[in-house]
Amino acid sequence: MKKSILCVAALMIGVVSFAQNNSDVDQTGVGNNANVNQSGHNSSDVDQEFTSNIADVDQIGDNYSKIDQKGNVGGNPASGNGNYAKVDQDGGTATRQRSTIEQQGDRNKAYATQDGEGNRSMIQQGNGMNAEDNYARVMQDGDDNRSDILQTFDNNRALVDQMGSDNRVDIDQVAGPNQTDGNFSDILQDGDNNRSTTFQQTTGGANTGSFANREYVEQHDDGNRSILSQIGDQNYSKVYQEGGVGVNTNYSDVDQSGEMNKSWVDQRAQGAITADNTA
What we know:
By secondary structure, this protein is mainly beta. It has one helix spanning 5-17, and strands at residues 23-28, 33-39, 44-49, 54-60, 63-70, 84-90, 97-104, 109-115, 121-125, 135-142, 146-152, 157-164, 168-174, 184-190, 195-201, 214-220, 224-231, 236-243, 250-257, 262-269, 277-278.
């Protein structure tokens, strides 16, 4: 069993050499905690299992980070409850920035913040029937941003903010039994050639009488593209696109199957500029 002291040692080595950081934390037990702080040519891998896991990673310069957490709910080691993971990455000076967070179970929270050059982030939360009330937030500011979020089962929330060129985001949310109401996603993209693809599915309508699944997409500048797909009853989607100059500047495709679904699309030119919209 590796403890977080290895992380500290890796940090110290990185500080002395000013060129290379490496951290590997592997914990199995109760009340796990891992904290990693790295600066310059970083790599970090944190793996925690069984109950009350918290991981916090802070990286600056050419970063890679992977966090895998599993809790233990009701004696089920494949489940989890209240896992928390946070990754801060600032500047992949040679293009590299990658962040992967995978959490199993209920009420997990994951945050990923990436700033500058070749960003990637993938968050996967939940495991079948145990995957409820998970929260994921990704903030990317810089070049070549990509974000993949997969959340399974009900009442999950995903928020993605991207700024810069060639932004990409894919969100897949599936709602099922127990508390089934649906999932929530909110995407903001500001820059050129934005791409947003989301999929939401629920087996029933909203228990509260409002909406089951909800999707919000806001895109600014040139070459915006949004594809939304919702399956089930009482789903709601809203798309706002504001573009600049070019052919087919804005493109929106909304596909809803079921009853009592609502969709709202607003496409506009930027200022006094004429933009080509397709919905």
